[in-house]
Amino acid sequence: MKNKAAKTNHLIRKQAIRHYLHEKRADTFTFMGLWNDEEPYPLVELMAVQQVYIEQMKSEPIEGQVFTESQIRSEELTLQRLRALQKQRGE
Question: Which residue has the higher pLDDT, 67 or 2?
């Protein structure tokens, strides 16, 4: 995964989720990166980052924040929706 630091940024992750799930866009989400003004963030990479984020939420506080079960469940549901979208697209 290129540009891993940016892709694990929570704001960019949330923008990518909005792009794929809420706006229901079929094109690949892009963002302005350090080396590329249109850095791609494919759905498969977003799912991998989302999975790691969930695992982190369960195992340790992130930036001093402890997460509730409902927050964790919400992120798990988002991951399920991303997987369903991937399956629907045949990716």
Answer: 67
